[in-house]
Amino acid sequence: MPASPEPQQTIALVVRHNTAGIDEPVRAIVDFLRGAGYRAVFEAETATHVGVDGVEAMSVEQIGEQAHTAIVIGGDGTMLGIARQLARYHTPLIGINQGRLGFMTDIPIDRMLPALGEILNGKATAEERSLLEARILREGKQIHCSVAVNDVVVARGTGAGMAELKVTVDGQFMYNQRSDGLIVSTPTGSTAYALSAGGPLLHPTLAGTVLVPIAPHALSNRPIVVPDTSEIVVEIMNGRDISVNFDMQTVASLQHGDQIVISRSPDTITFLHPEGWSYYHTLREKLHWNEYPSSDGKLK
């Protein structure tokens, strides 16, 4: 008997909202995928704002259960949003940059089709990234739980005074901190808010979690990297209008005594890059390490 044909692999497209001129490159990707024998589908919200007809829409859950890969077209914010939702399904992600920085959406849109061809033909570098899981406890009871690709940020409200936070790591007291807040970041998030607050860069494969104070009252409060096996507890001791953000998604109205319990998530996300991709090249390009001033003072 002849062998049964392999089922057609599904590839989902997730596209950033309100992006001028995006329909043409999206249509080009859909045509490319179909020409290569794949079934192209849109994430449900993408289907409502992209003007490309004849493409089936799927929920995030359906994508997680059925899709071989998800292609994300936008900036790092778009990637963060879908990566959090797909993490539990372990769906590999390909990022095409239609934003500004693009640490995670790293493929230039003018190279998207050759890069996609390479990756889908197996000439890819797979890179696994860790996530954080955070639970909010009030009087010992969990009131919220979420994951973060970049960071969990505890911060005071606009116009409010300093927040006072008690931090323990693996049950050991670390410090009471008066500051504008605290960033608890993955290695992926070390190039985001944590970097702007003076934190260190962590290579994505490093098994660490970085704690970065935001404008601490005591100048001796410095960033610290702890093992990513640690359980970090941040307790709200004092302050007004304190909130916690998961990749900038806010949970507000924290109360004195609330605890944010942060640990490494059991799930991970996988980014697929073209063969030969280098994290250091990304840093040079995005952080302009390769630039130096010319005689007229301009960067080149």
UniProtKB/TrEMBL annotation:
Organism in which the protein naturally occurs: Massilia forsythiae
Enzymatic reactions: NAD(+) + ATP = ADP + NADP(+) + H(+)
Catalytic activity, EC: 2.7.1.23
Residues binding NAD(+), per UniProt: 76-77, 150-151, 178, 180, 191-196, 215, 249
Any single GO BP term: NADP+ biosynthetic process
Cofactor: a divalent metal cation
Pfam families referenced in this protein's UniProt entry, alphabetically: NAD_kinase, NAD_kinase_C
UniProt name for this protein: NAD kinase
